Amino acid sequence: MTAPLPERAATPLSVLMCRPTYFTVSYAINAWMDPSTPTDTARAIRQWEQLVATYRSLGFDVSLIEPLPGLPDMVFAANGGLVVDGLAYTASFAHPQRQPEGPAYAEWFAGAGLDVAHASAVNEGEGDFLVVGDAILSGTGFRSTEDSHAELASLVDREVVPLTLVRDDYYHLDTALAVLDATPGQEEIAYLPSAFDQDSLEVLRGRYPHAIEASEEDAAVFALNAVSDGLHVVTAADATLFHAQLAARGFVPVGVDLSELLLAGGGVKCCTLEVRRPREAAERAA
Ligand code: ARG
């Protein structure tokens, strides 16, 4: 006898995205990027538009930030900061090629009426900070520093859980770990075990004993770079085993092809920054 599946419910998200108008691969700051491989910007835009259409069909509120010329990675909005409990903790990029994106996203946050906390520590926003229940899983190893974990912990009334990444092809936490249900008390995640060091694996296994362990094949098409509303999990179209794992848990996999953006080492979640309003406001609305 297997345990009955929990009842899944969708809560549409508010997200910020950036059209890949200037997308290309002109430098290499992760293992996926090879400037000698040609990119097709029109195709990237078409695929990204498909992602926007998917979100709108799920009832998401999609805001757009103006793309800036000369910033080909600005499409990866997840890296623009972390918005939680009405506070926007700004990004401070590890690589000079992306540093101008930090102030651009910070300006958007201020314009949206969020309290902006300007980071002094190097961090790449939701690329490395994932909110699950009352905790924030926080990646380090390649981009965001341990100092940023401490800085974030001093700003929010939440547990910050450090996790260390060890593989350069899974350089951001959101490439190796997906939040499937962020609701406090019913947290569910999926992750790629080989992307983490031993201590981090123990933390993950202790906190989430029933987590989905993704296959190497699915992780390699950025299956874990996913966005969930608690029911629908928007993920890579060709991550077939992952889709089956999700369905077996009562989630509805929604596949989107972002193969052009994968040339820059990005997928669904990378293109998506969640705009979480204050806890009290959300509770009042409930
Ligand atoms: N080319 C980008 C970089 O290396 C990809 C960012 C992907 N974003 C993410 N949230 N994992 O910075």
CATH 4th-level superfamily: L-arginine/glycine Amidinotransferase, Chain A
Strand count, sense and barrel status of the largest sheet are: 3 strands, mixed
Point out poorly predicted stretches. Answer: none
Tell me how many strands there are.
Answer: 15
* Small molecules bound: arginine
Question: How are the strands ordered across the major sheet?
Answer: 2-1-15
**CATH level-3 fold name:** L-arginine/glycine Amidinotransferase, Chain A
Average pLDDT taken over every residue:
96
Distance between the termini: 35 Å
The number of helices is: 8
- Helicity range of the residues? 25-40%
Q: CATH class, anyone?
A: Alpha Beta
Give the overall silhouette. Answer: globular
**What is the alpha-carbon Rg in Å?**
17 Å
Structural class: alpha/beta
N-to-C series of helices and strands: EHEEEHEEEHEEEHEHEEHEHEH
Assign the CATH architecture.
Answer: 5-stranded Propeller
Number of domains: 1
Keywords: Hydrolase
Organism: Demequina activiva
GO molecular function, one term: dimethylargininase activity
Family: Belongs to the DDAH family.
Describe the structure.
This protein is an alpha/beta fold and 286 residues long. It has a single domain, classed as L-arginine/glycine Amidinotransferase, Chain A (5-stranded Propeller), CATH 3.75.10. Helix content is 26%, strand content 21%. It is built from eight helices and 15 strands. The strands form five sheets. A three-stranded mixed sheet has the order 2-1-15, covered by helices on one side. Strands 3-4-5 form a three-stranded mixed sheet, with helices on one face. A three-stranded mixed sheet has the order 6-7-8, with helices on both faces. It is globular. The model has no long low-confidence stretch (mean pLDDT 96). Bound molecules: arginine (ARG).
